[in-house]
Specification:
This protein has 15 helices and 15 strands. The protein is α/β, with parallel strands linked by helices. It folds into two domains: 136 residues, Aspartate Aminotransferase, domain 1; 255 residues, Type I PLP-dependent aspartate aminotransferase-like (Major domain) (Aspartate Aminotransferase, domain 2). The strands form four sheets. The chain has a seven-stranded mixed sheet with strand order 2-8-7-6-5-3-4, sandwiched between helices. A four-stranded antiparallel sheet has the order 11-12-15-14, with helices on one face. The protein has a two-stranded parallel sheet with strand order 1-13. The protein is globular. The protein binds pyridoxal-5'-phosphate (PLP). The site of pyridoxal-5'-phosphate has 13 residues, from helix 5.
Length: 404
Amino acid sequence: MNVSRLRNDFPTIRNNEGVYLDSACQSLRPDRVIGAITDYYENYPSCGGRSVYGMSAKVSLMIDDTREKAAEFFSTDDPECYIFTKNCTEGINTVARGFGLRNGDIIVTTDTEHNSNHVPWTVLSEEIGIRRVYSRSHNNGEFDIENFKMAVKKGVKLVSVHHSSNVTGCIVPIKEAAEIAHDVGAKIMIDGSQAAPHMKLDLKKTDADFYTMSVHKMLGPSGMGILYGKRECLESIKPLTAGGGAVGLATYEHTDLAPIPDKFEAGLQNYSGIAGTKAALEYLSSVGMEEIRDHDRRLMRYIFKRVSGIEGLSTVGPEDPDRRCGVFSFNIDGLSPHDIAMILDKMDSVMIRSGMHCAHPFFASKGIEGSARASVYLYNNEDDIDRFANALGKTAEMFGRSVL
Ligand SMILES: Cc1ncc(COP(=O)(O)O)c(C=O)c1O
C-alpha cells in the first residue's frame, strides 16, 4: 500500500493544507468516486428499473453491477441481499421496525451503542413495550463476552450490537456473538458502521443475519448506506417505506410487495450515490482491506506513542492500540473537548471531533461529559499524526500542562 501515492487520489488532500482526522464521521472521497457521481449526472441522469430506453437501462445495469460488487466485496454470493439505504441508521431502523416485534419481546444490545443502535429500540420500548436487555462492557468500554452470554438467554428475539465502537474503537467478536445468539434461537444484527471501512469482512462466515453499513465512511458518497441480510431474513421483514417500485402488483384493494431487494427501495433512488458506492468499493478493493487494517493499526500505535508524554491526557477505551479500530478518543484533564478541537483547528488546521459522539448513555454511565476524538483512515500518514500530536502538545502547554 503506497500511502504517498494514494493521497494524491484525494482532492481534499491535494487542495487543502489541513489534516483530516475525522474519518469515523465521514471519509474523504477519491477522484474515482467523485468521477462516478459526475459521470451519472453528465451522461445518464435517468431513473433505474422503470423505463426501457437505453439511458435508463444503463442506470439499471449500474445498480445491478453495484450489488454484484457489494456481494463480492463482502464475500457472499447473492447480490439481491444488498439493500441501498441512505445511511446505516436507516438500515437499523428498517430491521427494528420491520422485524415484527411485539409487546414483551426481548432485544439485547450492549451499553456502548451509538444512538442509531440505541434510540430505535428505546422508541419501540415506549411505543409497543419491547424489553431491553443490555450486555455490560468492561470498565474501559471493552466488550465482555461473559456478560453477553448472560444477557443472551432463551426467549431473546433479536440481538443488535456494534462491530466496532465509534468511541472506544473496540471490536466485538461478531462470529462468536452470532453463535451465542443463534444457540438461543435469536437473530443478530450487526451495526458495521465503524468496522466495515477498516477490515476485510466475510459476511457468510460471520453468519450475521443482518449487517448495516455507512458507505459515506468507506470513501462513498454522502447519503449512502447498505443493509445486508440473509435472503430468508430480508424476505421475512417488512419494508420501512412503501411506494412505487417496491410492489409486484397494486390494485385498489391490495398490494403485492416486490421480491427483495426491490421491496425495500420504494421511490426513485440515489442513483449517483449508488454509482459512487460501486466506485468506492472498487477503490477499496484495489488498495486491499487487509493492507488498510494494517495501516490503520500502525497509525493507532504511532498516535499512542506520540501523545504519551502529555500530562493529564487520558484515553477513553483500551490502552492497547491494537484493540482499536481507527479511533482514538481522549481527554486532557481540565480542558473541554470542544476547546481542544477548536484550538487544534485554529492552530494548525487539524480536524478532530469532540463531544459525546452520539453515545450519550455510555458517557453518562462513565460520568464524563464527552471526549475529543481523532480517527484515521487509509490516506493519513505519520506526518498527519505528528502535526496532531505537536498541536495537542502545544495546546496542553498553553494550559499549563507539561509535555515530555
Ligand atoms: C457505530 C455507529 N453506528 C451507527 C452510526 C450511524 O451511521 P449513519 O450516519 O451512516 O447512519 C455511526 C455514525 O457515526 C456509528 O459510528
